[in-house]
Amino acid sequence: MRQIAPQDAAELETLETREWLESLDYVLQAAGPARATQLLRALEIHARRRGVKLPFTANTPYINTIAVEDQTPVPGSNEIERRIKSLIRWNALAMVVKANRAEDGIGGHISTYASAATLYEVGFNHFFRGKDHECGGDFVYFQGHASPGIYARAFLEGRLSKEKLENFRRELKAGGGLSSYPHPWLMPEFWEAPTVSMGLGPIMSIYQARFNRYLEDRGLKKKTDQKVFAFLGDGECDEPETLGAITLAAREKLDNLVFVINCNLQRLDGPVRGNGQIIQELEAAFRGAGWNVIKVLWGREWDDLLAKDNDGILVKRMGEIVDGQYQKYAVMSGAYVRQHFWGADPRLLDMVKHLSDDQLQKMRLGGHDPAKVYHAYKAAVEHKGAPTVVIARTIKGYGLGESGEGKNITHQQKKLNEEELRAFRTRFGIPISDDELNSLPFYRPAEDSPEILYVRERRKALGGYLPERRVRVEPLKCEFGDLFEEFDKGTEGRPVSTTMIFVRMLAKMLRDPEIGRLVVPIVPDEARTFGMESLFRQVGIYSHVGQLYEPVDIDTLLYYKEATNGQILEEGITEAGSMSSLIASGTAYATHGINTIPFFIYYSMFGFQRIGDLIWAAADMRAKGFMLGGTAGRTTLAGEGLQHQDGNSLVTALTVPTCQSYDPAFGYELGLTVMNEQYAMPAMPAGSREGILKGLYKVRPSEKDKKKAKAQAQLLGSGAILTEALKAQKILEEQYDVAADVWSVTSYGQLYREGQAAERWNMLHPAETPRVPYVTQCLADAPGVIVCALDYLKVLPNAIDRWLPRAPISLGTDGFGRSENRASLRDFFEVDSRFIVFATLNALLRDKKIDAKVVQKAMKDLDIHPEKQNPAIS
Ligand SMILES: Cc1ncc(C[n+]2csc(CCOP(=O)(O)OP(=O)(O)O)c2C)c(N)n1
Ligand SMILES: [Mg+2]
Predict the structure, then answer these.
(1) How far apart are the C-alpha atoms of 795 and 801, rounded to whole Å?
(2) In this structure, what DSSP letter does residue 365 have?
(3) Residue 672 has what pLDDT?
(4) Among the bound ligands, the one closest to the CA of 116
(5) d(CA 251, CA 461)
(6) Ligand 2 mean position, distance from CA 372 (Å)
(7) Do 53 and 363 touch, CB atoms closer than 8 A?
(8) C-beta separation of 363 from 301 below 8 A
């Protein structure tokens, strides 16, 4: 047989390819894209059957998702919008440069907003709806480091004064300033969501979108097309929180959610993926998770070239360049780009021979082209059935030219010299003269200028300015009648755990006609651990689609009931997601004007320890709600060992200024943590309510006559260790003739804060009668030695010891836990009744109230070994 010459083979292949493509074109023309998809799918199945191994890819080519043919005219005035954007660019830059001239090292970022300006401005002019809109307003999570641009826009809108801008990052100056990043705590009428801790914005936005649905499905809010937009950085996508919940968004079909990823290919130190392509990586991840992905990579200048790219060589070339190289093209001349990008193939060079080097260099990327961005957003908000991510390519530090555009140092660029300022001013046509330039004036055109009129008109049409935080409802009144009365009475000897009591309280609250429907129980796959499964049936587990299956336990009383109007947010194993739900619910008083009351119950150790930064964000956001660390206490949770036993959270909780933390021992004390140890719950001693809230009250005074006893002591117990203190009280009385009072410390944190406040007041009011800390008031006249015992770190009692009449001995659980039973753990950590007795005797010896021999004998009797290993370091 005659061999086909290689060039003939190549020609044949080219011909064959063309025929196939022409056939497809014909189908497209005659029957449209749906039919083309059908055919391609059939072809794929056929090929697979014939053993063709198609390589897997979740990617589409490295081009825009929206075809030029699908673009419609963009409303509004492109020219005025460009001028507005330029002014915002200038003011944002001036704000940061000015701040750093006035105060070296005050910081701020120019390059993030410079890259994202078009992404935001298209949103502000056409998409984001304010609070007066009938939908209630969209939620926008701004990239934290882009805040200068958001402030600069608010300045044009007339919402922020020049003085405020001048005091960027100087909130403490007279007249106030602007916080570095979005902090609702610091600017409660402006910012809604803190985003600067990378990854938190994205995960919070997903749960916010889901919570909005939840409120609608439960009839607490009317159904609207309200959206949640989250802007994030490409570098930020490496945080596990960023992508960690994207499957939830797709599963829940959150088409009210739009992510916009600003892919400037850079993070702080350098390229996000120098040797790869972050855009393709993200596309695959989001498509794989079920999102609608819209890539906006190339500006309109590329349209003609791509239209002529019949053989796909340009698309292929675009897809083979790694990000580090793309970054290089951004900083190099047109000649360099011609040689290195287009020069790879003579046919490519031919395509651009009509363009000058300058034109080549100025070909915009998609994220800098308002029309491309507009179409992406339009498609995103119109998409049904899935969340959308807009992946937009930009240049970091866009417009900064020599002073930072696309450079690795650009993230931290905060100073520009006069020449650089002039270049920026000229490039964006800012009407500021050379003479004025160096004083960096903010520029705001006259009130009746086309720019200001346009800004105002657009925002009015879209329902008002944003960001705006607006509290729309009065706080709930704490009038619960006799709802909690039964818990004050105790259990009449019946042993129960505080966790069981909490579940009962929750069940009661859920049934309450006033607050019942506002309660939002949130649980990360631990409902059975805490005995909450009865609630599944009682109020249902929320699912947008209801229950599409017959649950395996349908014939039991407590079956696993999912329902569209279900009330429980059963989040699965995600504390970060659950906390995001708590935040969404705990801020609904502001975001929706609905006072929902979240109760997030979780495995204590996986709360403050694992998701502390989200808790911090919740505080910044002024979230209100209850967190309950179940199975709390280092020695109370038997068997689980080092990873699970929590002796830490109350210490960490103290670091969160708005968090009031409690370590309740009894049903009537319930607060932050709850335990699984069961014991009889006593009735609330009369008059102790105030002390419980403040952190300290006397539970059981000594039954002995103090004057007749050999010595006196005050035992301070907390949580489950309070029962050990009560046991120790008895032993001390019966065996050592020591009269001991027992106190319950429900919150060292509250005692500490109150003491600090008193001390501070005294310092600032030297001539007035000093205030006495509450803990001192309680214990000043209490006789005898003081011993504190708790299931948390000793640092908690030590934090208040200077307000005690005498230095205490603290017994706590510093160190790693063990898989053991309760008794062994309490022996190991030296917090059981024996050690409380022993510590008391030691303190009495120190005070010369008893003889050393008594202590030595006690040591034997109590079976305490002097060379016992130190739990704090073993
Ligand atoms: C959790 C966390 N880690 C680190 C930082 C510090 N940081 C601030 S911005 C930044 C780089 C951001 O890069 P990218 O997400 O790509 O945003 P860009 O500025 O490029 O748009 C880093 C590391 C932070 N803010 N939060
Ligand atoms: Mg980036």
Answers:
(1) 10
(2) B
(3) 54
(4) 1
(5) 33
(6) 20
(7) no
(8) yes
Does 396 contact ligand 1 (Cβ within 6 A)?
A: yes
Spans in the chain with pLDDT lower than 70: 1-6, 670-675
CA-nearest residue, atom 19 of ligand 1: 112
Query: Do the bridges between strand 785-789 and strand 809-811 make them parallel or antiparallel, or are there none, so unpaired?
Result: parallel
Query: Going by DSSP bridges, is the β-strand pair 257-263/562-563 parallel, antiparallel, or unpaired?
Result: unpaired
Return the pLDDT at 475.
Answer: 87
834/830 Cα distance (integer angstroms): 8
User: Ligand 1: which of 120, 242, 393, 411 to mutate, most ligand atoms within 8 Å of CB?
Assistant: 411
The secondary structure of 415-479 as a DSSP string is ---HHHHHHHHHHTT----HHHHTT-------TTSHHHHHHHHHHHHTTS-SS-----SPPPP--
CB of 273 within 6 A of ligand 1: the answer is no
Q: Is 196 in the pocket of ligand 1 (CB under 6 A)?
A: yes
Quick check: CB of 262 below 6 Å from ligand 1? yes
Q: Which ligand is nearest to the CA of 110?
A: 1
Q: Say if ligand 1 is within 6 A of residue 112 CB.
A: yes
Q: Whose CA is nearest to atom 10 of ligand 1?
A: 268
Q: Ligand 2: distance of its center to the CA of 261 in Å?
A: 9
Expressed in angstroms and rounded, the spacing between residue 77 Cα and the centre of ligand 2 is: 29
* Residue whose structure tokens are 């209490």: 782
Distance 199 CA to ligand 2 centre (A): 13
Pairing mode, if any, of strands 696-700 and 679-680?
unpaired
Number of H helices, E strands in the chain: 35, 18
Helix 833-846 to helix 721-736 angle (10° resolution) is 60
459 lines ligand 1 (CB under 6 A): no
What distance in Å separates the CA atoms of residue 380 and residue 34, rounded to the nearest whole number? Answer: 20
260, β-bridge pairs: 231, 390
| Non-local CB neighbours of 312 within 8 Å, separated by 6+ positions | none
Mode of pairing for the β-strands spanning 388-393 and 257-263: parallel
**Ligand 2 centre and the CA of 398: distance in Å?**
12
Cβ density class 443-454: b for 16+ within 10 Å, e for less = bbbeeeeebbeb
First-to-last alpha carbon distance for the chain, in angstroms, is: 82
- Can you tell me the distance from the alpha carbon of 778 to that of 696, in angstroms, rounded to the nearest whole number? 8
Phi, psi of 666 (to 5 degrees): -120, 160
Determine the distance separating the centroid of ligand 2 and the alpha carbon of 586, expressed in angstroms.
31
The tokens 């694992």 sit on which residue?
Answer: 610
The first and second tokens of residue 293, run together, are 């992905």
- The conformation of residue 810, written as its DSSP 8-state character, comes to E
- Residue-level length of the chain: 874
Q: Using the mean position of ligand 1's atoms as its centre, give its distance from the Cα of residue 237 in Å.
A: 10
Q: How far is the CA of 56 from the centre of ligand 2 (A)?
A: 28
Q: Ligand 1 pocket test: which of 147, 231, 265, 267 has the largest number of ligand atoms within 8 Å of its C-beta?
A: 267
Find the helix or strand (DSSP H, E) in which 295 lies.
Answer: strand 292-296
Residue type, 615: I
Task: Classify residue 205 as left (phi > 0), alpha (psi -120 to 50) or beta.
Answer: alpha
Q: For 19, how many CA atoms within 13 A lie in the half-sphere containing its CB?
A: 6
Rounded to 5 degrees, φ, ψ at 673 are -115, 150
* pLDDT tens track for 477-489: 877 778 888 888 8
Rg of the chain on CA atoms, in Å: 33
Give CA 126 to chain center in angstroms: 27
Q: Is the CB of 264 under 6 A from ligand 1?
A: yes
Work out whether strand 738-745 and strand 696-700 pair parallel, antiparallel, or are unpaired.
antiparallel
Q: Are 521 and 601 in contact (CB under 8 A)?
A: yes
Residue with tokens 């729309």: 472
Nearest protein CA to atom 13 of ligand 1, as residue: 267
**Atom 20 of ligand 1, nearest CA residue:** 267
DSSP 124: I
Q: What span, in angstroms and rounded, lies between the C-alpha atoms of 302 and 279?
A: 18
State the pLDDT at residue 673. Answer: 60
